[in-house]
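Running this now, will post back.
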Amino acid sequence: MFTATGASFAQEQKPRPKTRILFLLDASGSMLAKWEDSDRMMVAKNLLSHLVDSLDRYENVEVALRAYGHQFGRERNDCKDTKLEVPFGEDNADAIKKKLEAIVPRGNTPITYSLQQAAGDFPEDRSRNVLILITDGLESCGGDPCATSEALQKKRIFLRPFVIGIGIEPQHEKQLNCIGQYFNAADIKTFETVLSEIVTQALSQTTVSVELLDEQGRPTETGVNMTFVNALTGEAEYDYVHYLDGKGKTDVLDVDALLPYHLLINTVPPVLERDLSIKPGKHNVVQVKAPQGELYLRQDGPSPYRVLNTIIRTAGSDKTLNVQTFGDRHKYLTGRYDLEILTMPRIIIRNVEVKQGETNTITIPPPGQLAIPTQVQGFGSVYELHESGAQRWLCNLPEDNSKLTMALQPGKYKIVYRMKTAQSSKFTFVQDFTIRSGATTTVRIFNR
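Update: finished.
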């Protein structure tokens, strides 16, 4: 036996995980290029020093520094020139600032290899791992930083990285944009602003309200399961049942803005809102059109069917959306549906319309019953007879014992049966019969 406990409130009560920010700094030779009144490396060092100081005031945040292109000169063409200079730890701002002072730009730009090595810089726990790449150039060692970044994100090594480009030509920006969220630091002031914006995005609370709209565009739909799906990995990040309060207002949900999301609304059929645009550090309202109506399957009077199921499909489609039991009510998106009722014979009802806020009630006549009291062995089938004179096979009768009681919908039928003891096809038993609602029709099989 499984008993639900307070774990059902885990989404509300779980503590916010530690955030770890790894600065991946380009220290290749090109970082010595002049930039306004200084050079690129000096500007990056100064701004990063101020930034790690400001991060000291945040609780539950750790920082680290990795650099590349600084250990060997370009003449060596070393494509493994990358090093974790300061690992993650508490109160390590001074260590990072001292290390920044000592770094001298010298070599290549091995971005791909540095990303691969950075994967091991983060401790193996459930922290929010953030990587900030600062570079003034593209991959120079033939690697594929975009594919590497995507693979590491899928493994949840780190969230979608931030990439700050210094002096990057517009035609080359696409090569960095695929690594992560790209920012163009066209000047020193923009660089400073971008660093501040990234920290805000990484550490500020982000909230979302989901409004489920009816056909008039009003947020009246509710009570529906919804899932925030990681757009990169396909994993479910958050599961909720939609809620509206007494004033028709939806509630506010916390989300991690550094993950990419699709929103799956689990109506029937489901609605998938792709690539949500969520602004970090702000409250976001996501609107999804999901108007619903209700389908009620009802059968009057007592029924010999123990459970009568119906296959629900979108009109004109062969894909099963739902299996609904007679006696139940179920909501569907507004539209038209085909119903296959699993009676004997099956009843097909096409283009059943479901309207916004309305209940469409479907009824069928109560079945009757076929009773075969004869206990014989043999081979036979039941056929449905049509007014045109055509017949359609419905089912076979048991070979070991023909005695049975079977529920059938009202109509005309035929039994075709040959006992095992009969020595010729000409001894086949054929009997027409009629089934009426709520009545039992008895057919006795004889050897002819």
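The chain has a mean pLDDT of 93. More later if anyone needs it.
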